[in-house]
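User: Hey, quick favor. My workstation is busy. Could you predict this chain's structure for me?
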Amino acid sequence: MNAKESYTTIDERIIDLSGLTRDQKTYLGETILPQKEKMNVMDFLNRFLEDPVVLNSPEMYDVCRDLGTRMGILQGYLKRESYDRSSPLPEKELTSTEVAAMGQCSAQAVRDAIQSGRLFARYVGGLYLIKEQEAKAFISTLRKNKKAHSRTFSSHDSESRVAASLAKPPRR
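Assistant: No problem, here it is.
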């Protein structure tokens, strides 16, 4: 593949452009590429990722997404480190329901912890996403609190039973 027949993304993935029609290549070279210098990244993504010409070609779509990523970095919206190949893989994220199942608590308890700031999460597409390490730390704290609460409750419970039995007159 020569330079015009491929595109290398920021994460060094090669996109084969040899299957594009001449019109698609012209559109890419004369319409899309010049705009990356002139437009805000959000305007660029909104315009071209919804463009039927781009949507009908997975290759053109991938090129536009990559250009948007590069623009986001240049314009300060994204950090470059997250796209370096030498960076570690992103940490796994769990939904609030998955964290609740792991912690044997309700999803509402997890959402309450997020709302109160005891648990950090991102809200994406109607879901809370919690990094796996954050979830494990939260569950560990949750279990410690449950153990402390159960010890307090059980000792209090036995004290009340003793007090109640002393207060009642014996049965005859």
